[in-house]
Amino acid sequence: MAGRISAGASLAGKSWRTVRREPAAMVAMLVGAIIAWSVGLVSFVLVFGRLPSIDDSRFPRYLLVFPFLWVSSFFYNVVACWVAILLDAKLSGSPMSRAEAARRTRTKLGRIVRWTLLAGFVGMVLYVIAERLHLAGRIAQWLVGLAWGLATTLVVPVLVLEDVSVTTAVRRSAQLFKRTWVEQVTADVTIGAASSVVFMPVVMVLCIVGFISWPVALVLGAVFLSVFTAVTSTLGTVLDLATYHYALDGRLSGEFTESDFRSLYKRA
Hints:
Layout: H1 2-20, H2 23-48, H3 61-91, H4 98-106, H5 109-151, H6 155-161, H7 166-212, H8 214-249, H9 258-262
Helix pairs in contact: 1-7, 1-8, 2-3, 2-8, 3-4, 3-5, 3-6, 3-8, 5-7, 6-7, 7-8
């Protein structure tokens, strides 16, 4: 167990060093998230003439909100694919210009749309099941949602690096994940644990600021959460790319070495 934790920490650390050498990736993730949610929110306001409320998160009104989530997700997925292409070139030792990464992303737009619709549809179905079946539905939502999330972990690398359909990308992701689930989960948990070391003290500071001025705390919290999400998402992208290549044909990318993976599993 200690060896796996150490290997996971090594994967997370090397992911961070890769991201530091390509700061545009983190900035893109941050800007992409802001644009995505802004587009979704503005579209909602234009259609309904008001801001979303808590009632919009409940069934059946949730079904009316879902198309706006699809729109937001599409914009974010486009940025995520651009970042994946850019970082993969960095890992392979053949850095690519941002313009070239954008050009390659444009060739994937149709698949990104279909992936967004498929992922959104699965999420909507799980939400409806949870709402209609109450406790049993929520348990089913958690279990199926977890399985779906793990199976599609490597969908973005497959979509941007292989010429396959969305359904094939989902199958390929599931197959590759089965080969690499130990290091994937271990490294993700390590990234989450390391992130919490930063996250928790900041939350405590924000709580203290909230007693003084909650609007200031709210703004600072939104900024911190956006940056935090952008950093962890970018780290996850590097990890997914490295794992994808190693699971596919044993290729080692960037600083990643055989020993980073070997202590977690042996590639078939």
